[in-house]
Amino acid sequence: MNDASLPTTPAKGASHSEIAHAVDALIGAMSLAEKVEMMSGQGFFASYQANDGRWCAEPYRAGGGCERLGLAPLYFTDGPRGVCAGNSTCFPVTMARGASFDVDLERRIGEAMGIEIRALGRTMTGAVCVNLLRHPAWGRAQETYGEDPHHLGEMGAALSQGIQSHNVVASVKHLAVNSMENARFKVDVQVDERTLREVYLPHFKRIIDSGCASVMSAYNRMNGEYCGQNRYLLTDILRGEWGFTGFVHSDWVRGVYKVYGASAGLDVENPEPLVFGKSLVDAVENGHVEPQVIDQACRRILETQFRMTCAEDPLAAYTPDLVACAAHRELAYEAACKGAVLLKNDGILPICSADLRRVAVLGRLAGLVNTGDGGSSRVFPPYVVTALAGITQALGPEAEVLTGDEADLAAAAAAAKDADIAIVVVGYTLREEGEYIPGDIPLDEGANPSQGLRTGMGGDRTSLRLAPDQVALIKAAVAANPRTVVVVVAGSAVIVSEWDAAAPAILQSFYNGMEGGRALADLLFGAVSPSGKLPFTVPVDEADLPFFDAHADTIEYGPLHGYTLLEEQGVAAAYPFGFGLSYTSFSYRSLKVRRAHDRLDIEVAVRNDGDVVGDEIAQLYIGFPGIQAKRPHKLLKAFARTQVPPGQTEIIHFQVALEDLRWWDLETRKWLLEPGAHKVYVGGSSVSAEALCQTIVIG
After folding, report:
1. Are strands 214-217 and 221-222 parallel, antiparallel or unpaired?
2. pTM value > 0.85
3. pLDDT, tens only, 473-494
């Protein structure tokens, strides 16, 4: 075959049928070795070494591509708090954005990420992480949105759609039941079919239904089989039931162990052909893997790529000046403002900066650049505004800023005593929580197996509480100055029961991105009213949570966790799911519920009872008859964020599809809608929603 007779890639604007025809021709022109080469990443180890261990420092080939036929590979970058390449915008971590409950904001963040990905020469991202927060000890909790499947699905779908609006392949990860870090490479998660379907998969389906083009499989085993070679998960459910037509790729290193992973539904092994490659070629030639398995994988990869490359781009050009541009930095600031959760306020917030002469900003973390984990989600922004810098800048030269930290409690207490107000910043860094890669996994060719990227750092949390010296700092500051605000930096829930009663005000800022210090100052000094809500439950005690073993070989995942578990046990949370205070207050009334064919239409009136404008996040929960099958007391099924002027009332409208109220019947292996009385709860948190309830009978 000469060059003139080689098939060509489809042109811009090509139709679906034209793309399919071109793909068939290209696959027909490839050798078996070329096809299998498309089914793995290439060059990661060399790139990793050349860039001193910086993840995704240069465009990485993550599957696809055939040089002879002029086919470009997929160029991967990671996420999810920005683009892990260049000096890109560092947004607040996913959990902080989850606390915003702002679907529109998350879509806009996805669009910004898509623009920067293209400007940096990449075409695919692993930014959409939606593993359910089963337990706050999970080291990568910061990378997901929270503990509730509905919330995860809505936020993840928005991010995916935003990214793909700029023709970047978004990959949702990690499928499935991946909610542990240290043991993720070995643990076998035992989960019954109903729990899997109702708790751990719905958000993945929602995101795939929204158009997400790719899926990353998880490291762990599920019911005995590794997820990267689990046919039931990757083929029977994902393709057969959900109709997914995109491609599936593995996680990096140890994402697949056997060549039958290809037959099970894994299309791309990353980062290198450690299992596929020649072994997969041999398996096809020896009759152990059907040739159509290879063709189908290549078809999924190519059709997904061409669907993006043939579509018209929203921008005429994706130029380097778009990376960390002013608009994206303002978006990071907006997210940091909207995601902060005010847990407690005894009247000292907002701080009137005009009356301040001295402000004590205490804690080692106050002046530390601390944007989150240092693993695959790390972003390298052009600058970071720390808490100390943001507060100092907001105060200006009129006020003196005093500092102190845990290392010298006496000096810190003296600073607090001399100040008009004390702000104590406590929490975690990448050393206490984050991605963990054990030392026996080399990340470059010929590496010493004892030298892992994250050994001695990150991983699952060993404690859900603050370090003793931080607790001592809080108590010393409060004793010295009753006007003390505690700012908590963490990826998820922190148990605060040994000190929160003493603290007059508590704000959880999470890892709040490159503009986090500016946002924090504006929140504390009242330029912005806090509006975030907890996307997880903060328990009073560790015993209120599901069993967690960071080093387990096998663990069982049950149907209850977070607010569903505490409600089942009748245990009060320290701070419940959906909770968050504001500088104003809201009241709910006039709940109306009616059935409209295949859905419920609900409306409620929300009034701002205060004298400042504020954003409220209204949450709708459904309680079930629970006769045919035991169900949680209630489940989140809708939420809406709205801004309400002081003294005004806004009518919020919800729609809940009846199919979203179904349960999975193990006997018939079908989704069933139970007839009978369903309760509709609406309010500002999972607890306050109990006060406003309507019952509707579904026949």
Report:
1. unpaired
2. yes
3. 999 999 999 999 999 999 999 9
